[in-house]
Write a structure and sequence with these properties.
This protein is elongated. The relative contact order is 0.17. It is of the alpha+beta class and 129 residues long.
Length: 129
């Protein structure tokens, strides 16, 4: 009886790497499937006030295409626009790096040198009609 209990308990704790017959091993989890590249222009148009403060009146908005982030489960893109300050004076073009997951912007921050936003190819983000 003790031997039977030990065998049953061994089977319960078996993972996909255990030295048991295949039918007794737990199945390895399926790797996450990569999602399709997000439509950056659409995301920027829909979230323009979240990317740039509305009072800065962003114009000449441009964005790069999406690229996989290091983890592979998120996408990154760079977006830039000419903005004005709160006092109404023109500021230099501001560039932000977006992190996207499931077609939603989950992080936005000012682009740094390490983000490689400068050499990217930008395309105009046309306003919705």
């Amino acid at each position: 009886m003790g031997l039977l209990a030990a065998l049953l308990l061994t089977g319960c704790a078996a993972d996909s790497n255990a030295r048991l017959p295949a039918f007794m091993r737990a199945k390895a989890p399926e790797p996450p499937q990569p999602e399709a590249a997000p439509d950056i222009a659409l995301l920027v148009r829909k979230n323009l006030d979240a990317i740039f403060v509305a009072t800065t009146l962003p114009r000449d908005v441009e964005a790069t295409s999406a690229r996989h982030a290091d983890a592979g489960l998120t996408w990154t893109a760079c977006v830039r626009a000419q903005i004005i300050s709160a006092s109404g004076t023109a500021l230099r073009r501001q560039t932000y790096r977006l992190t996207i997951r499931h077609n939603e912007i989950i992080d936005r921050r000012r682009a740094a040198t390490r983000d490689d936003c400068v050499p990217e190819d930008y395309k105009a983000v046309l306003p919705t009609k």
